[in-house]
Automatic annotation (TrEMBL):
PANTHER family: SERINE/THREONINE-PROTEIN KINASE NEK, SERINE_THREONINE-PROTEIN KINASE NEK2. Signal peptide: none annotated. Keywords: ATP-binding, Kinase, Nucleotide-binding, Transferase. Gene3D superfamilies: Transferase(Phosphotransferase) domain 1. PROSITE patterns: PROTEIN_KINASE_DOM. It holds the Pfam family Pkinase. This is non-specific serine/threonine protein kinase. Its EC number is 2.7.11.1.
Length: 244
């Protein structure tokens, strides 16, 4: 992702989507969970990331202190606009840092997931499985395309239950069908992708909705998502076969 605020080209989103799905399918097939096959520690990108800057959080005078904010804030280490003009066909995506991963079938520990990327079952503290990866990927690809999170949450000064209530409300608002499957979501996405054609927006929206299903049982697997029309739209049959 870049941090310039500009949405990406549809080819960019499609290329990264295919690569991430291939990696996720590999991880799910082999139930990788207790060792970091693609750990960020195995790769170094000194020119891609800036040194981290830690800024302690300070309370404004007159405010009531509580435990809602973190002790430190760290600005992004990504260099602004680094990939804005990159040729998307040359980009390579890697999945890294599996420190919080678990074996499929043994999902009985607390997950390490950013609040805004939590699947509904995590928000509701319900039974969960590998489907949380699919939901998280859908959220990440939405942000990759639009440079906006699909479910932006306010957290400062809010109790955890208030955050969860807001999260559930946002999910219901974004994904409600309004009488037609995906209509609200498609319109919301279209407003953020003025550079996409109508067909491209609808194709991307349908693709994301396969992942952003509130019921974990209805989310497609990474393997099945790789067969979706969005992933291969615009590619020749020969190219698609070679890529698979």
């Amino acid at each position: 992702m870049t941090t310039s605020g500009s949405p990406h080209d549809v080819g960019y989103v499609r290329a990264i989507s295919r690569q991430l799905l291939l990696g996720l399918d590999f991880l799910h097939q082999f139930a990788t969970g207790e060792y970091d096959v693609f750990s960020y520690r195995n790769y170094k990108y000194p020119r891609l990331l800036q040194p981290p800057e830690f800024s302690p959080v300070k309370w404004l005078e007159g405010t009531i202190k509580d435990d809602s904010p973190p002790k430190y804030l760290t600005p992004t280490q990504r260099r602004r606009g680094l990939l804005d003009n990159a040729n998307w066909s040359t980009l390579v995506a890697r999945i890294g840092d599996l420190g919080g991963a678990q074996w499929i079938g043994h999902c009985d520990e607390q997950t390490v997931t950013a609040l805004g990327l939590r699947a509904p079952e995590l928000v509701q503290q319900d039974i969960w499985d590998a489907g949380i990866d699919i939901w998280c990927l859908g959220c990440s690809l939405f942000e990759l395309a639009t440079n906006e999170p699909p479910f932006p949450l306010g957290v400062f000064g809010l109790a955890r239950q208030e955050i969860d209530n807001d999260h559930n409300a946002l999910i219901d608002q974004r994904l409600s069908s309004n009488g037609q499957r995906g209509e609200n979501f498609t319109n919301y996405l279209r407003a953020r992708l003025p550079n996409f054609t109508v067909d491209s927006v609808e194709s991307l929206a349908s693709f994301l909705l396969l992942m952003l299903q509130k019921s974990r049982q209805r989310r497609l697997s990474a393997k099945d998502l790789l067969q979706s029309p969005f992933c291969w739209m615009g590619l020749s049959i020969k190219t698609a076969v070679n890529t698979k």
